[in-house]
Amino acid sequence: MRALVMTGPSQGPDRTEIREIAEPTPGPGEVTVDVAHAGINFLDVMARRGDPGYVAAWPYVPGKEIAGTVREVGPGVTDLFPGQRVAAFTSGGGLAEVALARAALTVPVPAGVPSEVAASAPLMLASALLLLTDAGRFRAGETVLVHSASGGVGSAVARLVPALGGGRLIGTVGRPGKVAAALSAGYDAAVARHDAGVRPETRGVAAPGARIVPSGDVGGGASSVDAAHGIDRDVTRAGGDLAGAIRAAAGGGVDLAGAIRAAAGGGVDLAGAIQAAAGGGVDLVLDPLGTATLDLDLDVAAPGARIVLFGNAGGGAMAPLPSQARLRSGNIGVVGFSISSLSATAPHRVAAALRRVLDLIAEGRLDVPVTEVGSLDEVPAVHQLLAEGRGEGKYAARVGRPFS
Ligand SMILES: NC(=O)c1ccc[n+]([C@@H]2O[C@H](COP(=O)([O-])OP(=O)(O)OC[C@H]3O[C@@H](n4cnc5c(N)ncnc54)[C@H](OP(=O)(O)O)[C@@H]3O)[C@@H](O)[C@H]2O)c1
Predict the structure, then answer these.
(1) Quick one: 188 and 286 in the same domain?
(2) Ligand 1 site residues, Cβ closer than 6 angstroms
(3) Pocket test residue of 46, 65, 153 for ligand 1, highest count of atoms within 8 A of CB
(4) Taking residues 220-236, what's their average pLDDT?
(5) Are 149 and 155 in contact (CB under 8 A)?
(6) 74, 121, 149, 191: which has the fewest C-beta neighbours closer than 10 Å?
(7) Which residue among 312, 336, 360 closes a domain?
(8) Are 252 and 347 members of one domain?
(9) Which alpha helices (DSSP H) does 322-403 contain, by range?
(10) How far is the CA of 296 from the centre of ligand 1 (A)?
(11) Cα–Cα distance measured from residue 290 to residue 174, given in angstroms and rounded to the nearest whole number
């Protein structure tokens, strides 16, 4: 079978190739799946970089979420059958024509959920749901701050919050060009962190001389993969008044536009801009940036806030956690989250989250745009796009015969 194989650690696509490898066979409690679509994730990039804990041995086949049809069931598997449409969280190996999965992490896909969307559920959507509910203890009406808001998980969080009762959503992104994508994913306000967070910018409200995306658009779907990598470019935009939208988002007399102008003038007050957008403190922070923005998270946290640390996108060394005194004085909780660890220690919680997001999609309560990547051959370019921080939203690779 064809599979995407990483032969050793690399910062680029030079050690990734498509190869023929042996098909897996299911052991006890396992199934194999003919993969229709496989989700592409930043975790694949962290594996490719050789970040500690992601690859047990090279060569390595990445891919932790798939949708397809059951090919074969292993001994002891009674609730799944060959030909059944399923989505599965895998421990790797998903970017291949046939993937191995634990039955405990494989769930049926309800009718009407297409395979490219189902393939985005086991890791991305289940993580977003678990981040909000289990780790973050989100309650309807709360204010949520999400870093890397325009990416896969960031966009998924914005689309899930309304289905969980709604809340105020504030996102940060790594570059000004991603602000529009965060807003179109559903964020009420989005701010660009400039190189770890010193000059915040939001389109339409920056002071003269600030760097800004040259468009008055807001609310347009922007889903693009770099044409330079030979992949289709698909960008749609709708017109709108971003400054007005952000002022409206700030609500209740808070002058976010003024706050951001002041922040840009002062050059360093990202926390001030976020608090202005929040209309006060933030109840829940979802942070995949290691500890790079942890001080900021604490600065904007409302009393009783939860800060969930769930990644280390930059890959660097992490700073010590905040002092107990700082946490105690604000009644602030700092929580770690890893869906991979949870899948090992409590697979039923991952499977339950996966079932719930698939049901929300089937019921029309959750809409997840996915950029389809035409084949395994195009995946290395998408990994590179993600590695360079240029991805927007979710990507899933077409591997076999899709279902809809
Ligand atoms: N713990 C878990 O269980 C779990 C599960 C799923 C995902 N994650 C983590 O959640 C994050 C989002 O995952 P995703 O798959 O949806 O990816 P993504 O957001 O589509 O892409 C990763 C984003 O990380 C940001 N980033 C920050 N520093 C970076 C650097 N040095 N190089 C490249 N990108 C950098 C970029 O966004 P900005 O520039 O806008 O910040 C980039 O777009 C990742 O960090 C991932 O590891 C964790």
Answers:
(1) yes
(2) 41-43, 46, 123, 127, 147-148, 150-154, 173-174, 178, 288-289, 310-311, 313-314, 337-339, 386-387, 389, 391
(3) 153
(4) 29
(5) yes
(6) 74
(7) 336
(8) no
(9) 324-330, 339-345, 347-362, 379-387
(10) 18
(11) 14
How does DSSP assign 89-131, residue by residue?
Answer: E-SS--SBSEEEEEGGGEEEPPTT--HHHHTTIIIIIHHHHHI
| Whether 116 and 128 share a structural domain | no
Q: Please count the residues of the chain.
A: 404
Report residue 332 as tokens. 């602030």
Tell whether the model's pLDDT for residue 181 goes beyond 60: yes
What's the mean pLDDT in 118-138?
Answer: 98
- Residue 385 and residue 280 in one domain: no
Same domain, 29 and 152: no
Ligand 1 center to 55 CA (angstroms):
18
Q: Are residues 295 and 362 in the same domain?
A: no
Q: Which residue has the higher pLDDT, 49 or 250?
A: 49
pTM of this structure: 0.86
CA distances from 161 to 30, 141, 152, 349 (A): 33, 9, 15, 19
Query: Residue 142's domain spans which residues?
Result: 124-336
What is d(CA 135, CA 129) in angstroms, rounded to the nearest whole number? 9
Give the tens place of pLDDT for each residue, 358-387: 999 999 999 999 999 999 999 999 999 999
